Amino acid sequence: MNRIASTLLTLVAALGLVVLPAVTAAHASGCTAATLTGSYGSVSFGFNTNRPPRGIYYPTDNLGVVRFDGTGNFSTSWTNVSNGEVSRGLTGSGSYTVNSDCTGSAAFTSGDAAGFTFDFVIVSSGAEVLLTETQGGDTAIFDLKKQ
Question: Do residues 31 and 51 make contact, with C-beta atoms less than 8 angstroms apart?
């Protein structure tokens, strides 16, 4: 009986030596601003109320490229179609923060989207970013994929 208990204890201890470092490494490999670097293709779909008359939701979509510098800054250029009206050559830049659980927020500080804010989640180790607008007046979901 002691021999069985000793063997089980040894196996549990050995398993702990293998599993604990892997769990700790997975937890420690959470996200930082550096998780987002390089260019991402971007597409969004939603509705906005930015056109008169206020209170009426118009369909809107965007297609463009977002560039992250890995230190908390981004820039972007895109085309917007809102209720059938096309706007090309839109640009903007801003800052972003990333939490260790791979969530974060971003804010445009200049350009055509100055004042717009977003919450996001990073998936697939930075290969994709899912965003939602948070400044009010718009309802849109964005999907960014690493190029």
Answer: no
Q: Which CATH superfamily is domain 33-146 in?
A: Quinohemoprotein amine dehydrogenase alpha subunit, domain 2 (2.40.128.120)
The pTM of this model reads: 0.78
**Residue closest to 116 by CA, chosen among 132, 104, 101:** 132
Q: Is the peptide bond before 53 cis (omega within 30 degrees of 0)?
A: yes
Half-sphere exposure of 145 (CA within 13 A, CB side): 3
Tens of pLDDT, residues 3-15? 543 443 343 344 4
| Best CA proximity match to 30, nearest among 101, 106, 83, 95 | 101
